[in-house]
């Protein structure tokens, strides 16, 4: 039975799907900033910075909105439950340390609500980052690639983000391990939805197929990226919060959450780019996606040269928008 990802359009529509084994006529040049070879951990973490830099506006904006909604949900639940000041003063935490009480239910609900929104947002950002990374891998500039590639895919990506985010969050609530397993299986669903134009179910099945045999490496890379992001966010938030410290605990909490949201715009975008590069790396290792990307890049290069080729009435080096020799209009009369 043929599966959706067995068809040629999977590997970028219009270009042949790589066959198994190393193809002949391997183009030698690397068309863009993403190395078209199996990527090491340093490559994944370093090139992700380039992806964010080239696609900063959509990725950082999406990561900022995801963090804003997550922190806003947490604070809103606390405020509705009348526990915002209790949470800000952290007296409940000291009581737990002293063994006097358990975590208040309102704080648990607020944390879980924020976790669901944050996980959904992270999946969404990873899908958007895949569009930018795919464009850069083909040697394109990357700017505007997210909007172009996402045309007609927002519904599918949002559906994948909600399903994957909810499943992983529920798993984390059940002793953590089920959530980690679900994440390792479904982490590539968002990039598949965007780059392979698959539906929700197809994207999840595709992620399970691609991640099989690579889940230990995925766990290591994503855990390292999470540690780097968390450490960076904590240091920056702590330093800036101390500069604008407030005597009122609630005000201090709101300022800290706001600073953390701004920092998350960059760390969240970078983490999403790492996941997008993991997707490309696994397809390079298992499906020779690098060959399809080189073919796509070569096709783009030839198309650009053809567009710049002189017409029958143009001299070499003359731009196509310039009139041919002998047809240049005379300058307007003086005065």
TrEMBL record:
What superkingdom heads the lineage? Bacteria
Tell me which UniProt keywords the record has, alphabetically: Membrane, Transmembrane, Transmembrane helix
- Name the residue ranges with Pro residues bias: 321-335
> What residue spans carry the Low complexity bias annotation?
311-320
* Chain segments annotated as transmembrane: 59-83, 103-133, 154-174, 180-198, 218-240, 252-280
- Region Disordered: what ranges? 1-31, 300-335
Q: What is this protein called?
A: Glycerophosphoryl diester phosphodiesterase membrane domain-containing protein
Look up and give the organism this protein is from: Nakamurella multipartita (strain ATCC 700099 / DSM 44233 / CIP 104796 / JCM 9543 / NBRC 105858 / Y-104)
């Amino acid at each position: 039975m043929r599966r959706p990802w067995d068809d040629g359009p999977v590997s970028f529509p219009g270009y042949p799907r790589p066959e198994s084994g190393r193809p002949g006529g391997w183009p030698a040049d690397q068309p863009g900033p993403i190395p078209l070879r199996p990527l090491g951990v340093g490559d994944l973490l370093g090139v992700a910075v380039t992806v964010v830099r080239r696609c900063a506006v959509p990725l950082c904006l999406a990561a900022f909105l995801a963090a804003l909604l997550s922190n806003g949900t947490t604070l809103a639940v606390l405020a509705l439950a009348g526990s915002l000041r209790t949470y800000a003063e952290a007296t409940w935490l000291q009581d737990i340390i002293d063994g006097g009480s358990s975590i208040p239910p309102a704080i648990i609900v607020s944390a879980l609500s924020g976790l669901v929104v944050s996980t959904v947002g992270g999946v969404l950002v990873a899908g958007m980052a895949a569009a930018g990374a795919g464009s850069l891998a083909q040697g394109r500039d990357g700017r505007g690639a997210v909007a172009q590639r996402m045309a007609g895919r927002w519904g599918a990506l949002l559906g994948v983000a909600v399903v994957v985010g909810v499943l992983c969050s529920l798993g984390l609530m059940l002793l953590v391990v089920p959530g980690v397993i679900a994440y390792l299986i479904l982490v590539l669903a968002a990039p598949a939805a965007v780059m392979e134009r698959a539906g929700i179910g197809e994207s999840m099945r595709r992620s399970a197929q691609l991640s099989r045999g690579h889940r230990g490496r995925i766990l290591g890379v994503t855990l390292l990226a999470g540690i780097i992001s968390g450490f960076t966010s904590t240091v920056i938030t702590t330093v800036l919060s101390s500069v604008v410290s407030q005597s009122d605990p609630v005000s201090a909490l709101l300022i800290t959450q706001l600073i953390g949201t701004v920092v998350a715009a960059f760390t969240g975008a970078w983490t999403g780019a790492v996941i997008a590069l993991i997707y490309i790396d696994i397809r390079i290792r298992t499906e020779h996606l690098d060959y399809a990307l080189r073919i796509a890049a070569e096709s783009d290069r030839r198309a650009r040269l053809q567009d710049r080729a002189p017409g029958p009435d143009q001299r070499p080096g003359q731009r196509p928008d310039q009139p041919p020799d002998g047809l240049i209009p005379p300058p307007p009369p003086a005065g």
